[in-house]
Amino acid sequence: MRGLLIVISGASGTGKGTVCKKILNDLPAVAYSISATTREPRPGETDGREYYFLGRDEFKSWIADGKFLEYAQVYGNFYGTPLNKIEERLNRGEDILLEIDVQGALNVKKKCPEGIFIFLLPPSLDELKRRIEGRGTETPASLERRLKNAVAEIKIGLEYDYVVVNDTIENAAEKIKAILTAERCKVSRNADKFIFEGGF
Amino acid sequence: MRGLLIVISGASGTGKGTVCKKILNDLPAVAYSISATTREPRPGETDGREYYFLGRDEFKSWIADGKFLEYAQVYGNFYGTPLNKIEERLNRGEDILLEIDVQGALNVKKKCPEGIFIFLLPPSLDELKRRIEGRGTETPASLERRLKNAVAEIKIGLEYDYVVVNDTIENAAEKIKAILTAERCKVSRNADKFIFEGGF
Q1: Is the pLDDT of residue B198 over 80?
Q2: CATH code at B152?
């Protein structure tokens, strides 16, 4: 079977990163496709693990060299999904997880409609606010901007395939794992199972 | 959320009944919609539990009274899905499981495309043969007819949403449960989750 292209997205502060880490930890066969960004690393983030941290000039040269499946500018920073032979890897049967912002994920959906597009929601807007504040990396101005944008971003979730409320990491991860199991059972991915060699 | 209409089908002898029993046992919130049939009860089957066992004249009067969502003739016997207020129950949020033959399930799909159509496959044709023989209720003629029809029926599975190989009851039930979890996460079933009251 061709690998699954799993795209996990959600408004800023919904906990995409933590949920993706849990999925990758629980399902070692799923490969993480590392995004590139021009934003500053947060405490604990390492270049080539969470992101490829690029300078703006370097990012622009990756664009020029056709190295991105998609890229987008979010809150003044660039984010991109490197091609990294994604197509070849899917054809080999490898499952690939992309964690992308809302805008970038929709760009991937246009190019790869067979992907599985999962939108994470916060349990409530109050909880979302607490999470963004708690991160401690926002200025009052950037916090306000993020919260305002989150409401707009959440509406875009209606264009995804699945929605998962990130109430706890465990619940969200269990639901995402069920989605992957179900997707592997789709008739459209299993046409070969209906051909029995021989017969009676 | 509206309830899920879960339709489990598969060629004769793939173990639909056993798998459905396991699902109903594991998920007590799912209600079983009992089918009606004119075939003889098998050992251990009780009227009103596995099936409503009707005489042919009684079955025909149910048809005349518009009591069926669908009905079909299979191997000389009639099988039908009683309406039993299915629509009202789904609107109340009740999940309803239908176990139907291949032909009947496709008729339901035409009327209720929002249903979840799951096709059970045997692990192999040899295994299917062993299972039908092992049932001990077939004459040589009916066995041969069932096996020949099974190959034709399996091809119809390509029109379903999901395919689950019934290698063990536990594996098949786990996959079906994952499918139900995934379906509950479909954006199309969760439009209300994208409307946050208030805002900031």
Answers
A1: no
A2: 3.40.50.300
